[in-house]
Amino acid sequence: MPISILPLTTPTSIPTINSIISTTFAHNAPIVDALYPHHDLPHGRASAIASLTREFESKPHARFLMAVDEETGEVVGQANWLIFTAGEERMGEEGLLGEGAWDNGEEREWAELLYGGLVRQREGFIGEVVGRGERCLVLTFLSVLPAHQRRGAGSQLVKWGTDLADSMGIDTVLEATKAGIPVYEKHGFETEFQMRFE
Questions:
Q1: Is the pLDDT of residue 163 over 80?
Q2: Alpha helices in 65-140 (DSSP H)
Q3: What span, in angstroms and rounded, lies between the C-alpha atoms of 11 and 53?
Q4: Distance CA 67, CA 154 (A)
Q5: Do the Cβ atoms of 72 and 55 come closer than 8 Å?
Q6: Are 142 and 66 in contact (CB under 8 A)?
Q7: What is the C-alpha separation between 108 and 120, in angstroms, rounded?
Q8: How far apart are CA 93 and CA 75, in angstroms?
Q9: d(CA 68, CA 74)
Q10: Which uninterrupted H or E stretch holds 19?
């Protein structure tokens, strides 16, 4: 069953995208749990959907993608590529985290600290590798439903971004969980540094 990669043009499919992220990462990715706690419960889902919707509406250079099964019409994967200018803009940790998803203020404070640190490290790394003032393409999220993995959807979502970067003559940067590294290495990505969460 072939899979097509389609752009997200309106926020109506964001709940579906959020469901894919939640199902794919489950509770196996500490950073996802910290930023989107209770993402598999109604109040956490609503918070994450609101966060993704704000990102979709506030970042004109973001490219949200859906991997769609051509026979069934089911959305089986998603990705978000961001065209970013190193040193001249912020990826923006402000306002993108959901409201009301944390059980207490300490959890919220930790999430803001974690996300802010992640964004700053990402931006600093891009500035060093790509060069201040230069554009690059950043993969901020990619996930494929477990039942549809190993069908090539992840590779197609990666290739969409690398093809765009090649056509623009710019570099690509991404972060990966251990599970995702083999997919990215197939497309020529190399690990430059590691972040540990304890």
A1: yes
A2: 105-129
A3: 6
A4: 8
A5: no
A6: no
A7: 18
A8: 28
A9: 6
A10: helix 14-25
